[in-house]
Amino acid sequence: MKLLSVNVGRPEAVEYTDQPDGLTGIDKRPVQGPVRVTAPGPKGVGASGLAGDAVCDLRHHGGADQAVYAFAREDLDDWERELGRPLPSGSFGENLTTEGLDVSGALIGERWRIGPEVVLEVTSGRIPCRTFQEHLGERGWVRRFTRKGAPGAYLRVIQPGEIRAGDPVEIVHRPGHDITVALEFRASTTERQLLPGLLAAGDTLHPETAAAAREYTRKQAADN
């Protein structure tokens, strides 16, 4: 398992974003050399966990629990075959393109060591949005991506440091539950009845997902 590329994006003016300034940082490109990774601070204030990477929509992206976004090269290859077009690393707006790692099959709370310093913790899957769809230029993309159920993973920074393309990725902790990123994604999108079960992931679950799971559980109890 290794880090195939580290990808960062610069602010870019586009017509399709609903940001007031018209900017997005979704167009990530591989970079050479080391990149510093740190916890960026809370959502709404903190942006990306990677130095030099732009996050323009702080309402929905960035922050401590979405500091880094990882996507598997194998899943990009699968989409290349399905879409019939090349998808270079970073095409899905991911910061980390991995090789040999089942990113969507990772457990919530699973920890990865990347290189000699950095430790990241899996928090949730990526919910597709209109900006993602327009960036790719694929009609019905949000629906297609959701149906595939391989969303890639958001991660929080446990131990900061530097990473670079080619660094080994080691799973250093697996929690004792069975809540995967793919399961969390299904519960958050198309199978809301699965939400209560996500609470087994405890404090490692993305706070917004945990709040949704608790609210769903409360409403179910009230209805019964």
Structure description:
The structure is a single chain. By secondary structure, the protein is of the alpha+beta class. It is built from 5 helices and 12 strands. β6, α1 and β7 form a beta-alpha-beta unit. The chain is 23% helix and 24% strand. Strands 4-1-7-6-10-9-8-12 form an 8-stranded mixed beta sheet. The chain has a two-stranded antiparallel ribbon with strand order 2-3. The protein has a two-stranded antiparallel ribbon with strand order 5-11.
Overview in brief:
It contains 5 helices and 12 strands.
**Number of E-type strands:** 12
How is the largest sheet built, in terms of strand order? 4-1-7-6-10-9-8-12
Strand content: 15-25%
State the low-pLDDT regions, or none.
none
Share of residues in helices: 10-25%
User: Judging from the principal axes of the Cα atoms, what is the shape?
Assistant: globular
Task: Give me the secondary-structure category.
Answer: alpha+beta
Integer-rounded radius of gyration:
17 Å
**Mean pLDDT over the full residue set:** 96
Q: Can you write the helix and strand succession as a string?
A: EEEEEEHEEEHHEEEHH
Question: Termini distance?
Answer: 47 Å
